[in-house]
Amino acid sequence: MNKHHVTATVNGEPVEYLCETEATLLDVLRDRLGLTGSKEGCGTGDCGACSVLLDGRLVCSCLVLGVEAEGRQVTTIEGVANGGELHPLQQQFLDDAALQCGICTPGFIVAAKALLDHNPNPTETEVRYWLAGNLCRCTGYDKIVRAVMNAAAKMREEA
Amino acid sequence: MGNEKLHLDTHQFKVVGTRPVRPDGVDKVTGRAAFGADFTLPGMLCGQVVRSPHAHARIRGIDTSAALALPGVRAVVTAADLPDLPSEVSTGGESPINFRYVSLNVIARDKVLYEGHAVAAVAATSPAIAAAAAALVEVDYEVLPHVIDVLDAMREDAPVLHEDLYTSGVEPKPAQASNVAARTGFTLGDTAQGFAEADIVVEREYSTAAVHQGYIEPHAAVASYAADGMATIWCSSQGQFMVREFCAKLLGMDVGNIRVIPAEIGGGFGGKTTVYLEPLAVALARKSGRPVKLVMTRGEVFRATGPTSGSHVRVKIGAKKDGTLVAGEMVLKYQAGAFPGSPATLGGMTGFAPYDIPHATAECWDVVSNRPKCAAYRAPGAPMAAFGVESALDELAQLLGMDPIELRLKNAAKEGTRTLYGPKFLRIGYAETLAAAHAHPHWSAPLGPNQGRGVASGFWFNIGGPSSAAVHVNEDGTVEVVTGNPDIGGSRASMAMMAAEVLGIEVGKVRPMIGDTGQIAYSFLTGGSRVTFATGKAVIEASEAVVAQLRARAAKLWKVEAGEVEWRDGHAHCTKTDEAREPLSLRQIAHSAGKTGGPISGAVSINAAGAGPGFGTHLCDVEVDPETGHVTVLRYTAIQDVGRAIHPAYVEGQLQGGAAQGIGWALNEEYVYDAQGRLQNAGFLDYRMPVCSDLPMIDTVLVEVPNPGHPFGVRGVGEVPIVPPLAAVANAVSRAVGLRQTQLPISPPRLLAQLDSKGR
Amino acid sequence: MMEAIEYAKPNNIDEAVRCLSGAGGGARVMAGGTDLLVQLRGGHVRPRLIVDIKGIAELRRIDLTADGFRVGAAVAGAELGAHAAFARAWPGVVEAFQLIGSTQIQGRASLGGNLCNASPAADSVPALIAAGARCTVAGPAGTRSVAVEEICTAPGRTSLAPGEFVVDFLFPTPPARSADAYLRFIPRTEMDIAVVGAAVSLTLDADGRCVTARVALGAVAPRALLVPAAGAALVGTFVDDAALEKLAAAARAACAPIDDKRGTIEFRTRVAGVLARRAAKIALERARGL
Predict the structure, then answer these.
(1) Whole-angstrom Cα distance, residue B556 to residue B550?
(2) Using one digit for the tens of pLDDT, what is the confidence trace for B169-203?
(3) What is the pLDDT of residues B716-759, one digit of tens each?
(4) How far is A132 from chain C (nearest CA, A)?
(5) C103, A65: Cβ pair inside 8 Å?
(6) Helix or strand or coil: residue C60?
(7) How many domains is chain B partitioned into structurally?
(8) Taking a C-beta distance cutoff of 8 angstroms, is the pair B164, B340 a contact?
(9) How does DSSP classify residue B534?
(10) Domain C178-288: which CATH number of 3.30.390.50, 3.20.20.70, 3.30.750.24, 3.40.50.620
(11) What is the CATH number of domain C64-172?
(12) Average pLDDT over residues C146-150
């Protein structure tokens, strides 16, 4: 089996790995790099549980090949907190009880971070449409949307 | 708007009712929490299940030799590797379980009964080799005609799935096997007399499609099998003790030789209250001598794990002109999937439960067909029956010119009302939910063109059952609370809060843990809306046992009688006033525990009785695009009697989540089969669950009418919220377009076709 | 065991053509991968070689040239949407492209991929056709310019010859008072494949009369359709209700849809007329506002 040798930056740290062509970035993160925070909910880009940032852009890691990460920056849920200090979004999800089973939470936090990096003052509609690619079956989305908007308000205050 | 709480008694709590951050929260927001697929073990093999491409076929033979010969393949199992279980019905759980059916569903023996039915499983050194090996397993099928729909499966000329299935519950016993597994029924009063007294009768047929629980986490298990016959399973499930019991039965092993370690669970809603992969993982580990990991793809989840039943329900309701209900009749036909066991009986028990109807019957039919075996889905059976009853009541209200909430209030069940299924209600809060709905601004807000408002109610029994808890006081006064129920919605927080309340300490000093089957005594599964109630009760009792010990230890330190010590605000207080004695904190007593008798802990196993039923009333506004049939949910309010909300935010979350599932069920979710009986929409693209932009904020009102059966008044809350939304949405659409909706999902093509024939 | 899949990332067009031609039909082009990886994982395709074209500069550019905007075939939806000038000139194309999938999909999905995947329901294609866009196709025989509506021939099939791939899209600058719009019907609000798609691009004269119009429909035939009769219904009119009704009727008449899990023939046909009319009204308002 022909494998690619890839060097990339994941959550600010240099990494290297071997992978076959058809291995996805999600496979690599979970099975090679031990970063199991990104989840596989569907494998077809329909649920967003595998969301990561690739050079700052929000993507489904199940639809990116591992080999494509060569020379690029990947941010996963494990890289959202600043060491032991939670990102305001993470803290807000806890304070606002915006999770129940928690399986979709990593994907939502990465996606919401991408939103707020790009638009620090989103309306409720903008939040909902931005997050339409992240499925949640437990919460009905209400508390998630509130947490994102509350976090955005806090981040604007601190800015 | 947002969330409100209505207190109906005046007990003051210190911790209960507050909103601390959940103890497992940081792990969940940082990706550290380990779910079923996140485990690896050294030397682990990758497994893959081989599944039937046919909806119905006889298995003439399975040749695994080519698969076994592939380098890297370490084991292949078929039904031959599991005992051939006799038919045995166990009634320990919420519904009776026949382990023969569970076993045949996990791996087929002589016949495959649905597309996706497992026939073999392989374990290999890499996923690619496992996939290649699975493709090399040769199964010789004799394809048989299949049947998908309930009504088709009931016909005399339908292909029969089980040659030994004779309808139970009918007299005389049928001479021929059929797909009709069972008939059950309930009767109250005399419906002939009741309908004779009615001034007005509404009679309709309703249908709903099969829908999946839709949890985002696919099933996953890792199993290892040691040389001494001890199996260990890491899996996400709704009950580690259930997994242990089922695997022991299906594999012919002693229960004590299986240890099940619960992973975090990424959603279940009832769908993970059974086993699929776990027995296969153990069998593969046993055969290969190495740990084996099995994870389902999303396609496998849809094809081979239980959705809930599709249904046909006929409802007939009779009332007087003033709206008094005099008679009700329901006939329910539910799809069980490939093996008997649909929740038709539960539908019959719950549909009329919110109402005081003197004469009523329910006739419930359980029918098999070539679809995956159905599994529990949040208040199993109830949403379909409520869809029929609540829609019929809405129609009745229209015919009578009555406010639909007032119609319900007039007939609302209350304390002392006899139910169709037997018992009389104790203290319940249904009428309070109706009053809250009527008073809510949502009910009187104006509506625009093409908009409609629906109201509907629902009921669920909630259960208690066996639960265990252990409370350990650490040397520094921090406390551990160990229970045996996977945390599916935030229950860990409630366990810590209830313990903290009894012990009188800060909730931050209490660390809840979920023990595996070797670490805590038996607990029935996480389901039936029972954890906060039953496991909570066990936690309270264990905490009270600890308090008794703390008092005794303080008495020892003070050299007084235990009866002269009170526990208040987290401290022992001496009631003897002969000398001044400073109150002793839990921390102080813990610190000296070694001198006063050793470790302080309490362990309790109970069979919790006294679960209080729950009722909900939901309001829904929709707007219909008359040119396309597109339905938008504009506003939604869920009101429920929750007994006592231990952690209100997580209770609100249950209402919102159940409502969202019900909205999806009403509007867009359904299983679509092709002419060969193959599932066409086995993915999230075409199995359409609500996405974030589909829903508005879901406002909640928590009505608290405490349950007399629980020390803090807790009622189960998780299941009730999915019962009203089907009719709440359908009634809203019916009123928006002036056409009664009797078929779910109300997808745009169906709605537009109706609008076109009405001529708009 | 299955053969290994090779991966190549050429950094110029000639190298890409060589890779594709050398694989004798066993290569697949990859831009965003949002269709390819799903098909790969689902076992529907097993190429010998994946040619990642995102390393080629021409395929990543968005330039305003003398002839109009030139958009590289591998530009992602999020990138094109962020281009203010393009979004002003072609709001219909941008809204069509940006309806594809989720924000995550938009981070990767490309016009080239959406077109060459040749799904009858592709969202961007009707808008590209209505805009009169043309593809630059590179191959062993050199480059050629092809109207977008000539690329898809049947579901999953294109007119590209072996070794050919789409390099970029040219959007010929339209006259003043031109605007476009795209609407699609889906049962939810996001995340569904279009059940019907309708794109309209029109130009008004100084008096507000429509002088040209192109109407294209998606998901109602084996490939996206340009509907000349629907466009003709608007030309010479002020796009009043009577003209719009004729447009809707022409749209319905052009449909040749199927019954499937997403919609029935009857539903698609009805809604095609409704959306064509609504899209035309939006394009009209946009053109009037310029």
Answers:
(1) 10
(2) 999 999 999 999 999 999 999 999 999 999 999 99
(3) 999 999 999 999 999 999 999 999 999 999 999 999 999 999 87
(4) 6
(5) no
(6) coil
(7) 3
(8) no
(9) I
(10) 3.30.390.50
(11) 3.30.465.10
(12) 97
